[in-house]
Amino acid sequence: MTQATPNAARLGTFIASSGTRDYPETVLDAGRLCLADWLAVTIGAGAEDAGRIVRDVVARTGAPGNATVLFGKTASAGSAALANGTLAHCLDFDDTHVASNTHTSAPVWAAALAVAETQDATEAQMLRSFITGFEVAAHSGSGVGQALTARGWHATGTFGRLGAAAATASLLGLNQPRALNALALGATQAGGLTGSFGTMAKPFHAGKAASDGVLAAELAAAGFVAAPAVLEPGGGLERALVQDGGAHLTPALFGEWQILANSFKPYAACHLVHPAVDAARSAHPPVASIRRVRAHVSPLAMQITGHTDARPATSLAAKFDMRYCVALALHGRPLAAGDFLEPWRIEDAIAATAALIEPQADSAIGFAAARLDVEHDDGRISTHEIATAKGHPGNPVSWDDMWAKFSGLVSPRLGRETETLFTNVRYLARDSRRSTLPAIRQTLSALKL
Hints:
Elements: H1 6-16, H2 25-44, H3 49-61, E1 67-68, E2 74-75, H4 77-89, E3 96-97, H5 105-119, H6 123-141, H7 145-150, H8 155-172, H9 176-188, H10 201-221, H11 236-241, E4 262-263, H12 274-283, E5 290-297, H13 299-306, H14 315-318, H15 322-330, H16 348-354, E6 357-361, E7 370-376, E8 381-386, H17 399-414, H18 417-426, H19 437-445
Helix pairs in contact: 1-9, 2-4, 2-6, 2-17, 3-4, 4-5, 4-10, 5-6, 5-8, 5-10, 6-8, 8-9, 8-10, 9-10, 12-15, 15-16, 17-18
C-alpha cells in the first residue's frame, strides 16, 4: 500500500480528477497553442539527424503498436513518445515554462498524443490530459528549475518526466494512489545534464522524458509501487538534485493555471539568448560601425550561453552561443531554423561581429531581460534594453504570431495543407459536433521526408 504524503497526494488527486475538472476556455486555448507550437517545431525538425537516428533505432528495436511516429511508421506509445519527443526538441525552438525552466510541451505532448492514440481517447480527453501533465510539471518545478540548471541538471529531463507521467496517468484513468505512484516512478528516473547542451543529447532528454513518463504510468496502472515521498519539499528528488540546499521544491497547491504563464520562442535558439537577441534587433546599427558590444544578461544566461569563442563548431552549439546569436541579430538575421542548418558552416562576417561581443552577468537582470551597450567607432555608446523578451507572458505571442512561426516551419513539408492543419489544431475540442483530431492524425501519419 502506497503512503500518500501531502504533496504527492495533492498531485495524485489533481491527476485523478482530470476528467471531471472545469477547464476555463483560456486554459484550453493555451493547450491548443502549445500543440500548434509542438507540431511546428516537430515537423520543422523532420530531417534533423538526432531525430532521424532515434526514429531509426525505434523502427529497429521499439515495441510494436499503433501510435504514430512522425516521418516513420507506428510503434508502441512509449517508443513513439521517445521518437517524437526527441524530434520536438531538436531545433531548440519549442516552448518553455520559465518558472520551472522546463521545455514542457516537447515531452508532454509527445506522451499525450501517443497514449491518446493507443487508448482511442477523444480529443477533449487528450487536451485535458496534456493540460494536466503541463500543470503537474510546471507546479513541481516552479521555483527550483533554474537552480537545477545552475547545478548542471536539465529541468526538462526532470519535470518533463513528471508531466509525461501525469498526462499518461490521466489518459489511463488512474486513481489517486496509482497516479502518485506514476509520478514517483517518473521522479526516480529523473536526469539529463546541461553538460550535454549543444549536442544531440539535449533533445534526447525530452524524448526520454516522454518515454519514461509513459512507462511510469503504465507500470503504475499494473500495480507497480514506488516512493511518493521523494516528491515532497525536502524529499529525495530535491536532496539528490540540489545537494547544497540552495533551492527547494514548492508545494503543488494548484492555485493558478501555470499554462497561462508559458512562453514561446520566436527564435530557433536557446531561450536564454532571446532577450539579448531582442535588444540587438532593436539596435540595428550599421555593423561596420560597431567597435564593441557589452551584453548584460542574467547569471544563468551567462553560465549556459556566455562562455563561448564565437565560432561554434556545430549548428547545435551555435544555438547556445550568446555571442554568435547576438551577432546574427545585429546582421539582421531572423534566427530562424534556416540560420542553424547542417552541414554547418561558420559565416566569417557573423563570427567577426561575434568576436566584438562581451557577455557579462548582471544579478539585477532577470531571465527575460537584457541590455546591450553598443560602442560605435566614433566613441558614442548607445544602450538598448529589453525588459521582457517577446514570447514571455508579459509580452505574449498571439495566434497570428504562432501562424507566422507555424507556416514558416511546416509549409516546406505540407504546402497548401499547412493552413488546414493549423486550423484543425486551433479548433481541437472546441465544438463537440466537429471533430478535428482524425484529420490531424491523418496528416501526421502521412508525413514524409
